[in-house]
Amino acid sequence: MKIPFTKMHGLGNNYIYIDGFQVNLEESEIPQLARKISDVNFGIGSDGLIYMLPSEKADVRMRIFNKDGSEGKNCGNGLRCIAKWAYELGYVTETEFQIEANSGVVDAKVFPENGVVEQVSVDMGVPRLKRRDIPMVVDDRDPESRVVNEPFPVANTELNVTAVSMGNPHAVFFVDSIVESPVAELGPIIEKDERFVDGINVEFIEVVSEKELHFRVWERGSGITQACGTGACAAVVASVLNGYSNVGEEVTVHLEGGDLFINMTEEQRVIMRGPAEKVADGIFHWPSV
Ligand SMILES: N[C@H](CCC[C@H](N)C(=O)O)C(=O)O
């Protein structure tokens, strides 16, 4: 099977995109296809695979598969690239439209110039903050309670965690120095920690000011990436919850791959604004199983 693809990235968080309006993938093959296509040595090389599809609930649907083949419920950088792609391919004709992710439908807005979209804004909705909705193990704690700056001892290290779901789960840790943050050492351990029911994306944040954060991430299913859109949203929500940032004020999040602009509104909705870039088009040779 020869599969046409497009490689795109949001601040270096790059995926291989397949157009489900044109290509019908065998459902059972997708996890293995994601692993193969993501492999830089035996495939193309990416943080995962994103499959754009028709939707019954929105204008288009996004399915995201991590490098390890696991399916994610949401992807902020992926949503901006899908918005770009759907508009440029003509699947949507308005500059404001809706995208269905596994975690729900979001409102996207593109800002085309001469038919090309480089900047996208997405209303990522209201974060889920209850312990049981992250989801985290509840034990004898209140399932309705929030996880804000909670002691989180791990690997002989005393950390405090703030847990936020943007439809996918995030554990946010505030550190004094982003440069010294233990992303590579503790990321893979925390990702699989049993206190997180479905695993977790792991973010380390250094607060520069109320409107500026430094950010690094270990992603569930993909490891260290240059950027994580839902993670940047979770970081700003966590910063507000911990009193470092304010609702209604746009926060600049400095990720390895560049800056995202995130605003948690008075209505608790998280608005993400940032770039989406195309790298290449190609044909992937995929042996069916
Ligand atoms: N690893 C994530 C999915 C990708 C999220 C990230 N790339 C983004 O831009 O939000 C998960 O399994 O929940």
From TrEMBL:
Active-site residue list: C75, C228
Major location (coarse): cytoplasm
Broadest EC class assigned to this enzyme: isomerase
Keywords recorded for this protein, A-Z: Amino-acid biosynthesis, Cytoplasm, Isomerase, Lysine biosynthesis
Gene3D superfamilies according to UniProt: Diaminopimelate Epimerase, Chain A, domain 1
Catalysed reactions, semicolon-separated: (2S,6S)-2,6-diaminopimelate = meso-2,6-diaminopimelate
UniProt superkingdom: Bacteria
EC number: 5.1.1.7
One CC-aspect GO term: cytosol
Protein residues bound to substrate: N13, N66, G76, N77, N168, N201, E219, R220, G229, T230
Pathway info: Amino-acid biosynthesis; L-lysine biosynthesis via DAP pathway; DL-2,6-diaminopimelate from LL-2,6-diaminopimelate: step 1/1
SUPFAM superfamilies to which the protein is assigned, alphabetical: Diaminopimelate epimerase-like
Swiss-Prot/TrEMBL site (Could be important to modulate the pK values of the two catalytic cysteine residues) positions: H170, E219
Example GO molecular function: diaminopimelate epimerase activity
Example GO biological process: lysine biosynthetic process via diaminopimelate
Alphabetized HAMAP family for the sequence: DAP_epimerase (MF_00197)
Self-association and partners: Homodimer.
Sequence similarity: Belongs to the diaminopimelate epimerase family.
Function: Catalyzes the stereoinversion of LL-2,6-diaminopimelate (L,L-DAP) to meso-diaminopimelate (meso-DAP), a precursor of L-lysine and an essential component of the bacterial peptidoglycan.
Record's protein name: Diaminopimelate epimerase
Organism: Allobacillus salarius
Gene coding for it: dapF
